[in-house]
Amino acid sequence: MPFVNIKITQENGEPTSEQKQELIKGVTDLLAKVLKKNKASTVVIIDEIQTDNYGLGGKSITEVRKQK
């Protein structure tokens, strides 16, 4: 059973429900096409990460983006 975990930042109202559905469908279709995997047993999980919850260079991404 294929298991795909997508991690994406959650900001500015995105990803929307429609965008997440498109990601799930697209990844499922790609695995079926390239690896000949069964779509019915393909699991796709999307983890949305707020920019306060990860950092770079000792600062949260929220702070890094404010400085740009």
Automatic annotation (TrEMBL):
Q: What SUPFAM superfamilies has UniProt attached to this entry? A: Tautomerase/MIF
Originating species: Helicobacter cappadocius
The Gene Ontology terms for molecular function here are: isomerase activity
Q: Name one Pfam family in it.
A: Tautomerase
Coiled coil ranges (UniProt) are none
Give the family, as the similarity comment puts it. Belongs to the 4-oxalocrotonate tautomerase family.
Which protein is depicted?
Tautomerase
Q: Where is the 4-oxalocrotonate tautomerase-like domain?
A: 2-62
Q: Which keywords describe this protein according to UniProt?
A: Isomerase
- The active site is formed by 2 (proton acceptor)
Domain of life of the organism encoding this protein:
Bacteria
Instruction: Give the EC number(s) listed in the UniProt record.
Output: 5.3.2.-
